[in-house]
Structure formats: structure tokens, C-alpha cells
## 1
Amino acid sequence: MLIVISEFMDPAAVEALASEFDVTHQPALVDDLERLAEAVSTADALIVRNRTQVNAHLLSCARQLRVVGRLGVGLDNIDTAACAVRSIEVIAATGANAVAVAEYVITTASMLLRGAYASSLDIAAGRWLRAELSRGRELHGKTLGLIGFGSIGRVTARLGRAMGMQTVAHDPLLAADDAAWSSGDVARRSLDELLSEADVVSLHVPLVAGTRGLLDGARIAAIKRGAVIINSSRGGIIDEAALAAALQRGHLAGAALDVFEHEPLNSGTVLAQCPNLILTPHIAGVTQESNVRVSALIAGRVAASLRASAAHDR
């Protein structure tokens, strides 16, 4: 059985798969659609990150595909409906990168509220900005608002509480009597209530029809003045132009974006020159440790799926 891996994967996990299956691991395949289509034409399994588009065209080339492994949690780059029609199993690494994302959220929240960590060049040049940089705020006692309260949101809540934050969350997919609401001192809120209360708003939802443009201009304007926003989930959930305007006029105190409507950003982005804005290239969930966990989980589950498929064929 052949496994094609089109983006980077931890070498130990690749070696584990190669001990049992034929493996083609070429991280550059994601940027060569013709070679990718050829590679998957005889593949039984395909393992991807977020850049490979497992769409109708690619699936039509993968005539004997049995399973798709996603080195991450979001599935917006995979046509799950088309996979279901062909009984192709789709496996995500749910929970394996939760700690990495949660640490990103709490770290950037602290940096944004404190507002003192972009001053190294000024200080080294002799500009002693002690008065200006003494106006930062602490995480302790602030309210963390989580839009989406799945596995990553719950780890983020736990880290926030460790820093002395109060936590509120909005998740319409969780029933009011779900145990998650009672297990961690997290208060359930409507979206509008959360936006009016939270000092730190953090997004933890997938990009689907119901979440696209969720934080539009009106909702951004309704956010508590002086709050900060962090998006480590998916681009397209926040209206980037409205966010830039809110930062420029001082309604929001800061923002951190790891994901964008179009990736990579172009040089003319509306996000250029915004105050107290942290931009990172879709790496919130990617650390040395999380890459090992995610890769090992997907390698194990893809291997198990292929074994089960082979046994069924016999």
C-alpha cells in the first residue's frame, strides 16, 4: 500500500510508516499540482497539512484512495463531502496541537496587553521610554472570551485561569447542560454578551458557512473598548479591513492574527502599519513538540485504517 505525504511531517513518524508501507514523502508536492496529481494516482492514503487542497479534482486523480490524514485539526482544505461519497476516511489530529495553540493565545494576549515588547531597538538606541512603556496591563483579573469551546478552547481556558483570568465562552454546538460548562469555571455566554465583556477575545472555531465573516464590522464595533483579539483558528472569520480600522482608531488595543483570508498576505494588505498588531504565518499550532505529537497520532491512525481496509479486502 502506498502513502503519499505532500507536506512536512516529523521524520520519526515517516520512518514508522515506511517500515510497513510504501511511502512517498515530498513536502514540495503541495506546490506542484501536476506532480501531486500523478503521485496520488496510485495512493491508498494521503497525508496533508493545511495547504494541500484535497478537492474534487485531486480526489478524481486518486482513484484508489482509502484515507486522508490531516496533520492538524481544520478540515476546510478537504472536501469531506466528496470523501464521504467515496467512503474515504478523513482523520484529523484533534487535540494533538491544543497546548501549542493555547500557549500562543495566552502569550500573545500578555504581549498585547503589556505593550512593551516591540521596544528593543528604541531602548538600544538610547530612547528610554520608561514612562510610555509603564502603562501596560496585566492578564490577572481580566476576562478571557473564547468563541468556540472545543478541545483547544478548553486548554486555553485552563492556562488563562492559571494566570488569574476569568473565562467566558460561546459555543452554540454545546448544549447548556454539557459537562464542559461545569467542569472548569467557564461561564456560558451569547456571542454579543461575550464581546461586550471580554478583555481578550480568542477565536477557536472552524471556517464554515456559519462562521465566515462572524466578526464583521458591526460585531468588532461592539467589542469592549480597549480589548484585544486573537485569531489562531482560520482566516475569513474576521473582517480584516474592519479589524484594521478598529485598531487605527484606537477602539481595540491590539490584535494577533496567525491566519488570514488569503495566505500568504500580499504586500498591500490593510493590516500593514496597524498599531499593536502581531502577525504570524499560520504557526500557532506548530511547535517542535506538537509536530511530533500530531505526526505520531496521524501516522498511527492512518496505519490502522489501512490495516483495517486490507483485512476487509481479504
## 2
Amino acid sequence: MERGSASTDTGARRYMGGLARQLLALTIAFVVVADVVLIGPALGAFHDEWLRSRIDAAQVAALAREAAPTGALTEQLEQELLLNAGVRVVALQRDEERVLTLQSQIPADVAMRTVDLRTDRNGAAMFDALSSLMAPEGRLVRVLAAPRYESGRFIEVVIGEQQLKRDLAAEARQLFVNTLLVSLIVGGLLYAALLAIVVRRIVRLSGAIEAFGKRPNDPGVHFNPSGGDDEIARAEIALAGMEQDVRAALREKDRLAALGSAVAKLAHDLRNSLATAQLVTERLAGSDDPQVRQSAPRLERAIARAAALAEATLRYGKADELPAQRRAVSVRVVVEEAADDVRAQFGGVAWRNEVGEHLLAMADPEQLHRIFANLIRNAAQALKGQADGEIVATARLVDRQIEIDITDSGPGIPQDLRPRLFEPFASARRDGGVGLGLAIARELAHGMGGDVTLCAEGAGACFRVTLPAA
């Protein structure tokens, strides 16, 4: 029971916190602003309409006075007319003459403001209404308006402002209640709609991201997009795709870790076997057979490189390269040595070395040898079964960079493999190659400040090695 209660509390906090809380605060703020925007003009209209009603009552009282048989009223009857109309003074401007129709005593020092209803009152009415709400005790209002029931330029009345103030306050309270109720209903519906359409989906999305971050390897933690084509739906689809990509990368990482452990074990045994092979090579160097003595140095160099690689693999648990020991190296000589090692394995492959003898690169000779050996070996493997196959090495100096192209006349690189050609285990070979040669070659070139890239399309495959010139 307590566990269910805690889960409910967590869900409530998630919905009422963050974006939902901000949305609620904005909804309340918009409701208040809407009330102010709606109440202000409504109070202005009520203010002017109230004054016009007093103008009409004052005109009726003035007409009653003028219709009296004797043309004059007793003071008591005149005060009753003013009291019923709710005004203090009534005057009518006819041509150039101002006719004072009805009046009562007004103190000389009383405060008074003037409102002219003959002008455009769109903005002024609201400010006059606010002024009336804050009016001091006893203030009067002098109102000018066009007469409705008789001829004349304008009618002028003086009204006590206290009743207007009380009526405006009552109207303001009623307007506030009405607009607040309407605004709360509309704002509440809008808030509920946004909560259901936006916030709920964002909470679900953020919860999925948090769950995946805690258990990225758990296949049970899987996010299913809700569907749709809006921005949140696209984010859900991207999250689902990201989960698959990250899990694939983690599986690949585990696979590489296991592979590294296996390679380290193999390197341990390989190092011992290579040590024995080195002893045998030293004895071959003293052989009476001239061909054996000629091949022995090449074999000794190959075994030394293999032993060094096995030692580095065993030391680091993976094939991390030592920092390049760069110096001026003859590109032609290194290319030729790498080609000799490959041709000893792939007999019958035509080879042309067109690299100029004057080209010197700043590189590690051992690592550069491995780069060219990998590229030439790949080219020789691509030419298997071709009687007229040929591998050509060319080079040029471009802006203090040496560009060396290793080109073959084989079938070329498949189009679908090119985007991931330099990734580990991406191989175009069909004979079981693991696809590490190009990845190793590029990594070694980067360590020397260069690069390995695929050249423009040609008849076969062309790889370009770029190195700083010495």
C-alpha cells in the first residue's frame, strides 16, 4: 500500500512540477491580464452610459420646468426635479446664450472635473472611470453633451460623483466575477488540453530517457513512439532510434572487449612462437643456399614487426599504437619494401613503383610500412584470379603534403560499403577477411599528422595516403 502511495506521489510531482507548474502559472497570469483587459473598457462604457442617463433625466427635468404654466417653479419643486434627476445644475447653450434652467447651491471651493461626451471617448472613458473610482468625498462632475430632446448647441449638467463612484464599484465587482469565471473556465480547459496534448507526452518522453539512462543494456526498457507527425512525435521516434543505436554500440563495445581479451591471450602465445621463429631465422642467415640467405633478412624483418605488434597488444590489452617516431623517410623505399613483403605472399601480381626518389615524408618508418603493406595487400587480394591485374604506386607534392596513391585494376569498392569503409570489421572481401586493414592504416596515418582516403572513382580501387613532407 505504501509503495503504491509513493508511486502516486512521484507521478503527481512529475506532472505538477517543472513544465506543468510553469504552464499553470502562465495560465493564471493570462487570466488576470484578460480580466484587466476586459474590465477596463467595460467600466469606461458603463461610466459614460451612466452620465448619459443623468443627462437625459436632466433634460426631462428642464423640459418640465419650461412647460410650467407660469414659466417658473417654486424652489421646493425645482429641488425635487434636481433630486429626481440626480443632478445639481442644468444649463442649455442656445446659439450664443447660456440658459441656466435648474440649479442648486454649490460650495465655491468644491473639487470638480469636466467630462465632454461630445468627443471620441474610446480611451478617455476608461481613465475617467478609474478617476471616478478613486474620487475624493464630495467631488462633482461637470458633463457636456449634445441635447437629445430639444435644440441647442450642448447641454451642461453638474453631478455629484459619489453615486457614480458607488455604482462603478458595484459594476466593477460584478464584471470581475463574470470575467474571472469565464477566464477560469477557458483557461482551465486550455490548461487541461495542453496538459493532455503536450505535458503528458513530454513527461512520458523524459521518463523514458531517464529509464534508458539508468539501464541502457536492459532490453526490457524500450520506448514505443505514440505516433503522429508533430515535433514531440518526431522526438519520440528519434529516441526510439537512439535506443537501438546505443544498444548496438554497447553490444559492439562488449564484443570488442571480448575480442581484445582473446587477442591478448593469442598475443601471449604468439610472442613465444615468434621468439622461436627469430632463432630459426638467425640460423637461416648462415645457410649455404644463396636464395635462403637472400630471403632471411626479409623474413627477419617481418617476424620482428609481428613480435613488436604482439608485445604491444599484450602490454595494452588492445592494439593501441605507440606514439609515432617521425623522421625524414624516403617514400619510395618504404613503398617498395612493403610491396616486396606482399608480393612474397601473392606471387604473380604485376607491380609498378612510380614514386619519385626525391620525395621525403615526416613519418614513422615502421608505421608507414604497415600502412602501405595493408593497402597493397588489399589490392593484391582484389586482383586474385585476374591474369592482367596490376598495382601502381604514384606520388606528388601538394602544398607541403605528399600524396601517395595505391591504385589497382580490380573490381573496385562496392557502393554500399563506401560510407563505412574505414570502420572496423567493414570488409569488401569474400574470403573471410575481418576488415581491419583500412581502419588500422587510417589510425596510423592520423598519428603521423596525415590521412588515408578513397580516391575518386576509376577503373579499380584507389587509396590515397597523405603525409607531411619533410
